[in-house]
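quick one, 353 residues, struct below
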Amino acid sequence: MAEPPAGPALFEIYDEGFDSPSWGGVETALWHLVRSLREAGVAADFYRASEGADLDVLAARMERDRVDAVFPLVESELFEGAQSKRLPELHDRTVRIWHDVSRLSEDLSAPPPCPVHAVAPAVPGAPGAAGCPAQDTHPDGPMHEVFLLDLPWTRCFPDRSVIPWAADHVPAQNLHDPSGPVVLQLGKIDTADAERCLRRLAGAGVPLRVLFATWSRRGREARELVRAHQGAGRQIEVLDAYDIRTDWDRVFGGAALFLLPSVFHETFNFAAAEAVQLGVPVATLGEGGNLPRFASLRAQTLDALLDRVVAGAGRTLAAKPRLTTGWRDVAARYAEIIRSRRVQTGREEQHDG
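---
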């Protein structure tokens, strides 16, 4: 018998939707994932965060529309307190994608390995373990967890998959120009460190093309710093807003290097992945979650990183190999998860009959 199609599925998005100039990684991921799911015949749709704020209404919609899987944002109240006990059927069909680590790390740095599960990963049906730092996030709950990289802190969650995002929403090109500007993203380091970046790079005559993590306070503060440096006659081009789907050449065209100083734990960094897809080498700080997969240059301190860039690292580095996984592959993995929630919750007969 042919395998039934997956879906329908609901994905939560921020209220600003896809028309906001602050569109970031979450929006990029969900836009391309849902488009690829639809192309594969999966009925997938969006709901806004304000529409999901009333969990009873969301649960009623799930029942009415016979939804197989719900994908809330990581900030959703679905993951607060005892909601999993109050709305068990909704949680049974919930899939949590770890776009960031805010539920485990308030400052978005790398979560510590669990002393219980880092060596012996949690298994389905096991009771919560004393001393597990993920306990407040309900790792033994009924929802399925999706991580973008297999790291020690993810092993507290017994019902999990590891599915990276893709970057083939921009074409495979070689836009690298060793004599071109350094593309610098600000907003993921302290404002004082952003000032140091600008002062050292611009002072050394390095031509800059600057973009921002517009969702962060640090990113907004960095904009003001850049304006002050522009006023001093420095070689700085600013990209306040762009749509990578159409503006990829404007962002990375002719760049010597993509410089991303980040103290965050990057579960997946689209700007770095897009740079690699477009043939531009990436330089970044430390470990940074998924960033080592994309970085041709890493340094443990900001000063050491800036030393290399000022010395002309972009002239000698080559971009890392492109990702081999595309959005169709990612969507196929998610279709399997959506289908599994139907089977697990006993809805297969409802769909067949």
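The longest strand covers residues 9-13.
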